[in-house]
Amino acid sequence: MNVWAIAEVGQGRLSPISLELVAAARELADRMGERAEVVLLGYQVEDEAQELIRRGADLVYLADDPTLADYSTEGYLAILAALVQAKRPLVLLLGDTEMGQDLAPRLAQRLGTGLISGCTRLEMDLTEWLLLGTSPAYDDRLMVTSSIPEGRPQMATLRPGAIEPFPPDDWRTGSVEKVSVERVEPVVKIVEGGLEVPRPRLEEARVVVAGGRGMGGPEGFEMLRELAELLGGAVGASRGAVDEGWIGEEHWVGGAGGKTVKPDLYIACGISGAIQHYLGVKESKYIVAINTDERAPIMDLADVGVVGDVHEVVPALIEALKAQQEG
User: Domains in the chain, start-ordered, CATH in brackets?
Assistant: First the structure.
């Protein structure tokens, strides 16, 4: 009857969605009077298993093997399907991320159960022991609550940023159970690896560098990409910049069709700060605004406002960061 979450790692570290998933599992398990358990697959990630316990897990199933250093559909699917069939959790949560969107439907099909995708809220009907997953529909204009009356485990994917992670508790105790790894020959093999570090998805990024019409054109966003790369972040954009065709719609932050972000640091470059945009970034821990207009709405909303031309301020910031990294 336990609640499970499937953790994600990148470069040997837990991704932000992992901490949100363990918080969601913990909340559901507490309501049910059951245990919150997490499955962690990766290589040299034993320290991350302890972090999951500090964040709310009672038990971590750890599959640590060189073959799991990079995500592969076949390898993860084989391990998870076997583990779920052996342990039989009631609820199984994954992130609504690239990995989760690839893995969750395949795992649900393998297990013969259903899947509630893209949830922003999870609840438990304790009368019927049904997981209730609420997710946006029709371009986020309608919220729909779904359940899986018959299939087990009840599976759902959680949208990044939907749940606030628990702070680490160094006094929490839990256990780690090592899982044997079934070697599966991947369909796709990585024959040569580059040095480029993949950027985080916009909804998961701890740093977001966003631009508006003040960037002046697509070349302005190339400058923002360089800054985001130096900070290990993602690039966002206002509705205006997207409408101009300077950057793809997948970067749109705020508004009815844009993404909601919750980074530690949000840097708004040349964005006036309409209310629709602010609603998409208001839960950022720290907002820095760069704008030539000191009366722009974003300046009142920011923790720090820099009055200046983004085409001068951002290059100077890039050079300072490069000098710091080289030094």
Answer: 3-178 (3.40.50.620), 207-326 (3.40.50.1220)
